[in-house]
Amino acid sequence: MITEETVREALRQVFDPEIPINVVDMGLIYRVAIAGGDVVIDMTLTGRGCPMHGLIADMVRRKVAEISGVSSVQVNVVWDPPWNPTMMSRDVQIRYGFATADEGHASPDTP
Length: 111
Fold this sequence. Notes:
Blueprint: H1 4-11, E1 29-35, E2 38-43, H2 53-65, E3 72-77, H3 90-95
Parallel strand pairs: 2-3
Antiparallel strand pairs: 1-2
């Protein structure tokens, strides 16, 4: 059975050629809809002028098509909401300096 988690795990193998972060952890995958063997993905890119637009969408389509039971894949590139760094996974935000490991946690000195 195809699940959203199965699709997202497969997409963790798809990287933007210019950025060494997969499309899931980068926060580019907005929606995964599954109906039987048909998969529809709404995704975005970091900017409208991204020269890799077609290539990344095609890599997403091909990777999902490899999943057992998938009969069709539709990839929609959407621009709303616009991507921003807060959409990245927490680990990636920390790794690239968009957040700190202790953000949102009380420090030991806090009463």
